[in-house]
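Record minuted for completeness.

…
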Amino acid sequence: MLTTLLIIIYIAFISLGLPDAILGSAWPMIYQDFNVPVSAAGLSTMIVSGGTIISSFFSAKLIRRFGTGIVTTASVFLTAAGLLGIYFSPSFLWICILGIPMGIGAGAVDSALNNFVALHYEAKHMNWLHCFWGIGATAGPFIMSLFLLKENGWRIGYATIGFIQAVLVIGLVVSLPLWKKFETHTNEEEATKSDINIRALLKIKGAKPALVAFFCYCAVELTTGLWASSYLVISKGIPAEKAAKWAALFYLGITVGRLVAGFLAMYFNNKKMIRIGQIICICGALLLIIPYSSYLQLAGLILVGLGCAPIYPAMLHETPNRFGKEISQGIMGIQMATAYVGSTLMPPLFGMIAKATTFNLLPYFLVVLVLIMFVTSERVSKVCKDKMV
């Protein structure tokens, strides 16, 4: 039964990644069709992020009440409804409004599935799970590109991806008895456990440094993804076309790195995987500073991507070990919410810093974030005693 559920979860994570990058691909046509400023895309992404943060915070209560299967199904349904609704959007305002269910759906399903895998599967599956997310995130823009040259092409692209999500909803509905059988057993085991609120969770030893580590990780990943191309063009004089291709290799490094990390996780525990990733990240950021060869910048970006690859899955998978499986869902929810706060706030913060000073600060910005992540991760390992999952 767990093998069948694992296959469903893998497919769900491909689906989870599909919508994540399509707005950027379609935006050059959307803002012209709706006659809004090109910068308006930021408002839409912030609304989606806000919904994701809120649903992550409250995911533990929803899952305790309804179960992982129902929450996952409802979340994907919300995402599908939002995507299909954008097809009919008469104005940019509706894209913003439909970003609310998309964000709520993404946050709840992300937290639910990550905790389920952390509790019931080996570390290798967590790495491969996020590798599958990378496949979805890569496929989304590709699917959108197939329709952009057609009339209303971006609408058809959104509808196509929404239809894929709707098919997944049907599959999840069919699979609900599997989830229910498994979670009935789980709920009976944990029926006597008290409900722990967010304030109480934050008081647990190691919780706060764990949240800082998640915040810093997503800040590193999203800041690099957003500003790497601009850094290469403005600070290193690399042509824009080449810089865009090189920046894409950062995400390729993450996706391939997670595939490889799944095999390495058979030999190294989560703590070692986190450390290895952080050291590789720092090495990559330092290579970005060296001015002698543009290919050092390429190597630096790839190394930062490869370094990022094992960190996030390993931190997620380590959550039940650090805090105990009884409260792992609650901790997972606030970890995911904090991670989304980092990915929402830090990239624009660096943009403001770079505008006021120089883009040359990007590698130093990344090094500082990775060092803070390293210190807080080690702090969590020190204060949290391992528990059997």
In short: The chain has a mean pLDDT of 85. The two ends are 19 Å apart (CA to CA). The CA atoms of residues 270 and 314 lie 5 Å apart.
